[in-house]
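Course exercise 7: structure representation. Students receive a sequence record and must write out the corresponding structure in token form. The form below is the worked example handed out in class, using FAD-dependent oxidoreductase (386 residues). Read each field label carefully; the graders check that inputs and outputs are placed in the correct fields and that the protein name is recorded exactly as given.

STUDENT ID: A-19
EXERCISE PROTEIN: FAD-dependent oxidoreductase
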Amino acid sequence: MQLEAGTLQAAGSQAPSDDERDPALREVHVDVVVIGAGQNGLSVGYHLARKGVKFVILEAHERVGDIWRSRWDSLRLFTPARFDGLAGMPFPAARYSFPTKDDMADYLEDYAKKFSLPVRTGVKVDEVTRSGDRYIVTTGQTRYVAGHVVAAASSYQKPKIPDFAASLDPSIRQFHSGVYKNPGQLNPGSVLLVGASNSGAEIAMDLASTHQVWLAGRHPGHIPVAYNGYFAMRLVLPVVLRIVFHRLLTVDTPMGRKAKSQQLSHGLPLIRVKTQDLDAAGVRRVSRVVGARDGKPMLDDGRLLDVSNVIWCTGFRAGLDWIKLPIFDDTGRVKQYRGAVEGEPGLYVCGLHFQHSTSSTMIHGAARDAGYVADKIGERMRAAAG
Ligand SMILES: Cc1cc2nc3c(=O)[nH]c(=O)nc-3n(C[C@H](O)[C@H](O)[C@H](O)COP(=O)(O)OP(=O)(O)OC[C@H]3O[C@@H](n4cnc5c(N)ncnc54)[C@H](O)[C@@H]3O)c2cc1C
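STUDENT ANSWER:
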């Protein structure tokens, strides 16, 4: 794909003056800049390429898939391969097997190659601003000028850790699930996992044979069938993933809107691990951790836990604060409908928690959400062209 270099045609009052521009920055004009080459950014790219749109995908990591490679060593997808393919390329594994995180990383890299998607790796976006009707995407060495921007940087960028973590005794080893790799990182003794959603439950199972594990937090519910049985894999799971998570629980249904507020505050129901698996592995489940006293984590009934390690499985923020535009609501969430950002025609997001449905942050939801965003961009470009 050929990208044009040129001069910024600034229009409108937000245009930077010549003095404000960094003369060292190269300038590139393109129809669409997609930020992030995860499943969502690549899916947007797939759909844009089919429309013949000129675009570039900017990815901060050195290799496509690195976000998956960086996750913990034993991680396998909780969705079987049948649900892990993106548009145009099924996942190359037995339909009911669970790919490893590295299989997923390699799949994404192969996907980008197969469709010759124009991904620039090792390019971190520092800022998105607007100048008239053009968006300015600034990276270390280049300023991209585009009519459309898609922030596909996911809901999993900035770890959420409560402030009282700083009051824990320094002898307690503590870190976020985003940097957990394996049991060797922990002090000997017991570990408290704060947050009982999928990451907390999966890490609890990973640690149960080497540490005494406490799992704290409200139980988010689970899929009520043996997950890897024949019946569950072939009948229940397709219904849950393809119908319930993808079609019923959307922002367009009353049931979906109710599920949205629950899932945004408590996470998805447990998909692979069941409470009986946790019990069988000896994981002790306790209520919420609400603070710290005497350097120890404190539960909501006032009980203190004497542990050697704490892993914060407390989720992530989208971390889109490099978008310097008034697009966030009071809770810091992007105001959007199906990825189209309110008040910013031309700006889109993809992959946010419950952007459109429960499946929006899952692999099998990427194709539809990305297709919608690409269609809107296509419509807008056609309208502008007259
Ligand atoms: C531990 C874990 C396990 C999961 N397992 C499953 C599963 O089994 N099945 C399932 O369906 N879903 C699963 N998910 C949910 C979801 O599929 C993944 O989180 C997935 O990685 C999200 O894809 P994405 O494209 O939205 O974002 P990401 O994969 O996070 O990709 C976003 C990309 O944007 C890049 N980026 C961010 N900021 C910038 C910037 N400023 N400039 C340039 N690039 C930037 C990042 O480097 C990253 O590569 C899991 C999530 C987690 C956390």
